[in-house]
Each structure stands twice: as structure tokens, then as C-alpha cells.
Design goal:
Strand order of the largest sheet: 1-2-5
CATH architecture: Sandwich
Distance between the termini: 47 Å
Helix content: 10-25%
Mean pLDDT: 82
Number of helices: 2
Largest sheet: 3 strands, antiparallel
Structural class: alpha+beta
Low-confidence stretches: 1-10, 12-24, 27-32
Number of domains: 1
Shape: elongated
Strand content: over 45%
Order of helices and strands: HEEEEEHE
Radius of gyration: 15 Å
């Protein structure tokens, strides 16, 4: 449990300092082509029901929508273990998009022991569909 908290604190420090390519996962890449239209403005790894068979992990945060006419936004989340090995890639589609801030949650697909293995993540805007 202490290790998880330490890794979360280190991840927070990495996020505060800014994440660049090649750094350990726990952030958002800054090479997004759709950044002028949509930006992930906050994100964090959230655990529920820790130390049980129902333990779950999700990336929760907010996206800033800057243009009208966007039909949907697809987010891509990558989940990593303590050795920075990728455990899963999950996509989440945000619909009913309005200009402004919208909350999101991308759930890791497994529970219990498999969810406990998640120590890091990367979240990115995969695609933006709509008309400017």
C-alpha cells in the first residue's frame, strides 16, 4: 500500500513537471493534433474497493471542448504495471459534446488482483469527429 502511495506521489510530481516522450507513464502526451479543438485539462488514477476482489481502477478527469460542432471525442487510455509494462489499451467515446469542460472516466477492464497491478497510465485524445 505504501508503494502505491509513493508511486502516486511520484506520478503527481511528474504530471506537475510536465510529461515528455520517453518518460514513465502517468500523464498525457503533448503531441496531440486535435489540441486546438479538445484538450485534456486534468486526470488522475482512481481506485475503488481497494484490497478486495471488486477493486477497480479508472482514469478520471476533464476535457476542455473549444469548438462547436464536435459530435464525439475518443480517448485512448494505456494502463501500465510497476515495471512500465503495458497491461491494456482502452478507448472511451464521449458523446453529446458541448463547448466547455466535460468530465470523463475510462475504466480498466479487469478487477481485483489484476486491477491492483495497475500503477501507471497514459491518456490521450485519439480522435475528434465533427465539423468546425
Amino acid at each position: 500500500m505504501r508503494r502505491r502511495r509513493l508511486l502516486a506521489a511520484i506520478g503527481g510530481a511528474v504530471l506537475a513537471a510536465g510529461c515528455t516522450e520517453g518518460e514513465p507513464a502517468n500523464g498525457t502526451p503533448d503531441d496531440d493534433d486535435d489540441e486546438d479543438r479538445v484538450e485534456i485539462v486534468s486526470h488522475e488514477l482512481v481506485r475503488r474497493d481497494e484490497e478486495t476482489d471488486e477493486e477497480s481502477v479508472a482514469i478520471e478527469g476533464e476535457v476542455q471542448i473549444r469548438e462547436e460542432g464536435i459530435e464525439h471525442v475518443e480517448l485512448e487510455a494505456r494502463f501500465f504495471d510497476a515495471d512500465e509494462e503495458q497491461l491494456d489499451i482502452t478507448n472511451e467515446r464521449l458523446e453529446k459534446i458541448d463547448v466547455g469542460v466535460q468530465q470523463f472516466s475510462v475504466q480498466y477492464p479487469n478487477f481485483g488482483e489484476e486491477a491492483r497491478a495497475v500503477e501507471g497510465y497514459q491518456i490521450d485524445v485519439a480522435s475528434v469527429v465533427g465539423f468546425p
